[in-house]
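Protein record

Derive tokens from sequence
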Amino acid sequence: MNDDRIGPPHHAPERETLRAFLDYHRATLAMKCAGLGDEELRRRSMPTSTLTLLGLVRHMAEVERTWFRRVFEDHDIPMVWSDEIDFQAAYDTEGATRSEAFAAWEAEVEHSRRVEREAASLDLSGLQPRWGEEVSLRMVMLHMILEYGRHNGHADLLREGIDGTVGA
């Protein structure tokens, strides 16, 4: 597995550091899926679980959409794979493909990056509809780093189970 990720800076302003850590985690998820076909990406972690690498990519598309689009732009935009704000729906990968999952995820990541770039500061405030509370862009970026970090741990175990590839 090639590691083309760019590591976060050791000394940088807050916004640059948050952006770099988030992009590093995004690249980690893509790296964990690199070189695998649809069948391998749909392979479950264990028989009763629906957790797959493809499901994680689809889930993170939903998470990107929820935390950037729904919070800062359109509180009512539908989710990608669920009409009912059901994050579990993304894990149903029967018939799903790498191309559709990655196209949705990459589009949401690009949209999220645009929202962050265009924000005057990390103090930009938006409504988190599920909580009914205002949150800052700073909080959203930190939340996303944690979300990716948790799921990249899952991705590492899933990838190891598929072909024995471990690390980073």
